Amino acid sequence: MYHQIHTYTELQQQIHDDLRIQHPDWVEPNGESPICDSYESRLMELLGTSRRTEIRNAPANSLLPMKPSPRQP
């Protein structure tokens, strides 16, 4: 089923749910899943690192709000 993601929190929840659906053998009888938790944690760490690198490597003016470009006649 397709579900459109709008926020970072929704993305985290979708990853959480999908890991458990795709790997029911990783879920313990009490509902906990240390393996899924580990995967989620690592992915969030990688996404955070990726975002920081993206910002660090971006030109300074690309981090500012965009201004409309002047219209060409």
Could you explain how this protein is built, in words?
- The chain contains 2 helices and no strands.
- It has 73 residues and is mainly α.
- α1 (8-22) runs antiparallel to α2 (34-57).
- The longest helix is centred in the middle third of the chain and has 24 residues, at 34-57.
- The chain starts with 7 loop residues before the first helix and ends in a 16-residue tail after the last helix.
- Mean pLDDT is 76; it is low at 60-66.
Features:
73 residues, mainly alpha
Largest sheet: none
Which class of secondary structure composition applies to the elements? mainly alpha
Radius of gyration equals 19 Å
How does the overall form come out from the CA principal axes? flat
Total of DSSP H or I helical runs spanning 4+ residues: 2
Question: How many beta-strand segments?
Answer: 0
Beta-strand portion reads under 5%
Task: Please give the alpha-carbon distance between the first and last residues.
Answer: 47 Å
Please mark out the parts with pLDDT under 50 across 5 or more consecutive residues, or reply none: 60-66
Average residue pLDDT? 76
Helical content band: 40-55%
